[in-house]
């Protein structure tokens, strides 16, 4: 194997050695993204742990370890993540260098009093990790503040397009030596910001000045081919473009990878980008899917609506859900064979009642009535009632509301049932 010339890859390899060594005794700070483990979570965890290893760790001997919050076998489902790593680091197997949730014994670290955790891209531990609440020492996030872990330091929670933009700000503040921000890392960070801000396009209301500032800071590093020892940092086509076409082709590549999912099974589509909450005794799950249910090239046309419904019911039953919401988002104008430039970015909401709410028609219809009342935030239009009473498909005309906005709405509704 060729010598590893990426400092980031060497850093990741060292963290794996620490985890693999029974004799290791140094304190560990696990930097972890949210349970959906999307590109923003992955890259913000890696870039923040690496920053801290280049700054704080030097004086404390503490090891900062980025952890991807899913088992390794699920990584391939996040199609945009492996794609981004391969594009940003064409000569290094960055995926192999990562640590996944099934490769670290957090309980043993906690029992040995060696564990601290920093949450990036979320500010409340996933239900499956709640037992580590006492270990949370830092938060850098862009979701609604759940007001937990009041002593966390840093405790940065600001609604910007991408958590990675907040990490970029930490890099700017730290002013560490330029060689640490290698072209591949800068490219991967830009990719995360572009995907979460729909390519910095104003009308989708995701992008903020902080996201633009992050990209401005990262761009010269991403474009600086001279800083790589082992060849071009990005695919040759990206390296020779101007800044604007660099951003455009990077976004197009990552976006295409993200939406190239129509061959995935229904259950893989549902678990690819999935988060769960327990609210007032009700278990809520929300799956985000970068495709569309309706239409001739949609998911329902592929599987049939009853099969799609059955897959959702099975998925919900396995997780003991009382409410399962499938949020779809699809850019019909983006360059692919089925592009429909006349249609832009569209969202749908598929609401499925299960568990306690499937058994209580009164409460289920109360939830629907409340959702339909959200004429500003959601602007729902009923498309289909595939299974009267337990399932409804809507077009969500307010395309500005992503899961980050929809989840608190559903939480309020469940809390007042
Ligand atoms: Mn995010």
From TrEMBL:
Top-level taxon of the source organism: Eukaryota
Record-annotated DHHA2 domain positions: 251-414
Keyword set, alphabetical order: Hydrolase, Manganese, Metal-binding
Record SMART domains: DHHA2
Molecular-function annotations in GO: exopolyphosphatase activity; metal ion binding
GO cellular component: cytoplasm
Cofactor(s) it depends on: Mn(2+)
Protein name (database record): Exopolyphosphatase
Annotated organism of origin: Geranomyces variabilis
């Amino acid at each position: 194997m060729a010598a590893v010339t990426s400092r980031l890859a060497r850093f990741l390899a060292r963290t794996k050695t620490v985890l693999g060594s029974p004799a290791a005794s140094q304190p560990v700070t696990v930097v972890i993204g949210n349970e959906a483990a999307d590109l923003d979570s992955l890259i913000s965890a890696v870039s923040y742990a690496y920053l801290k290893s280049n700054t704080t760790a030097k004086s404390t001997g503490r090891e900062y370890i980025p952890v991807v919050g899913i088992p390794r076998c699920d990584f391939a489902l996040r199609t945009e993540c492996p794609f981004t790593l391969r594009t940003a680091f064409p000569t290094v197997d960055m995926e192999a260098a990562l640590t996944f949730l099934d490769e670290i014994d957090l309980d043993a670290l906690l029992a040995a009093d060696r564990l601290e955790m920093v949450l990036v891209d979320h500010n409340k531990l996933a239900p499956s990790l709640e037992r580590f609440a006492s270990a949370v020492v830092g938060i850098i996030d862009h979701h609604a503040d759940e007001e937990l872990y009041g002593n966390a330091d840093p405790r940065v929670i600001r609604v910007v397009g991408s958590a990675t933009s907040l990490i970029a700000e930490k890099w700017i503040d730290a002013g560490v030596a330029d060689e640490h921000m290698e072209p591949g890392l800068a490219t991967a960070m830009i990719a995360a910001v572009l995907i979460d801000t729909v390519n910095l396009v104003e009308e989708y209301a995701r992008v903020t000045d902080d996201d633009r500032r992050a990209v401005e800071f990262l761009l010269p590093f991403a474009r600086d081919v001279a800083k790589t020892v082992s060849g071009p940092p990005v695919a040759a086509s990206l390296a020779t473009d101007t800044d604007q076409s660099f951003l455009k082709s990077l976004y197009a590549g990552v976006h295409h990878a993200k939406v190239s999912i129509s061959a995935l099974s229904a259950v893989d589509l549902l678990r690819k980008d999935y988060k769960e909450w327990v609210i007032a005794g009700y278990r809520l799950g929300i799956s985000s899917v970068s495709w569309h249910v309706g239409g001739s090239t949609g998911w329902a046309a592929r599987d049939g609506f009853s099969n799609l419904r059955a897959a959702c019911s099975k998925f919900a039953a396995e997780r003991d859900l009382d409410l399962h919401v499938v949020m779809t988002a699809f850019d019909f104008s983006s360059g692919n064979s089925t592009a429909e430039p006349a249609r832009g970015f569209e969202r749908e909401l598929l609401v499925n009642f299960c568990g306690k709410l499937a058994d209580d028609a009164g409460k289920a219809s109360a939830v629907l009535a409340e959702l339909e009342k959200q004429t500003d935030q959601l602007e729902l239009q009923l498309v289909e009632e595939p299974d009267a009473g337990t399932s409804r498909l809507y077009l969500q005309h307010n395309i500005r509301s992503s899961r980050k906005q929809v989840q608190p709405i559903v939480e309020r509704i469940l809390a007042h049932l």
